[in-house]
Predict the structure.
Amino acid sequence: MTITLYGDSISGNCLKAKFVADLLGKPYRWIETSVLKKETRTPEFLALNPAGQVPVAVLDDGRPLAQSNAIMLYLAEGSRLIPADPVDRALMFQWLFWEQYSHETAIAVLRFHKAYLKKPDSEIDPSLAPKCRRVLTLMNDHLATRAYFVAEALSLADIALVAYTRFSHDAGLDLKEWPHVHGWVVRIEKDLGLKTVLPA
Ligand SMILES: N[C@@H](CCC(=O)N[C@@H](CS)C(=O)NCC(=O)O)C(=O)O
């Protein structure tokens, strides 16, 4: 049985799972599930994830699994995307937790309000843009001396963080201001075999 991924193609969280499955050659069935059309609120979908959020993976044995980073970890089990060294692995988790608590809650949220809900700036929480800038500056400082977030090799930390960082322009942020982040996005998109979404 092939795993099934319920995801919305505009969502970085959903694309994380797709990127890992594609990179590792894991077969899956993708079921496009639109947040804007409220397809995450149907009784069938809520039976899979009562939180009403994509992504959800339905595993080989039929069990549903939610949370993008949990799905990535499941797909990448035993692969080069999870460092073998315990400290490096813990550092990967450090960045995965930071991504969910500090990064996704800034860049993904501002992007969604601006690019998809088309809200004028006056209706958007004014603390979001400065929070995004702090997040990008922290990443830029980290990447000033390294090519990848952990252990000089591609890991789930890079994949989690690139998912929304590459769409920063949708949130009104020009990555050219953060050149190490810009260069890293180009590198990770290439590693994942993705066509760049960065503005020229
Ligand atoms: N922490 C969750 C966040 C999932 C999430 O926010 N999903 C959004 C799309 S990116 C969603 O389904 N939103 C619909 C809703 O909350 O109503 C993850 O990483 O999977």
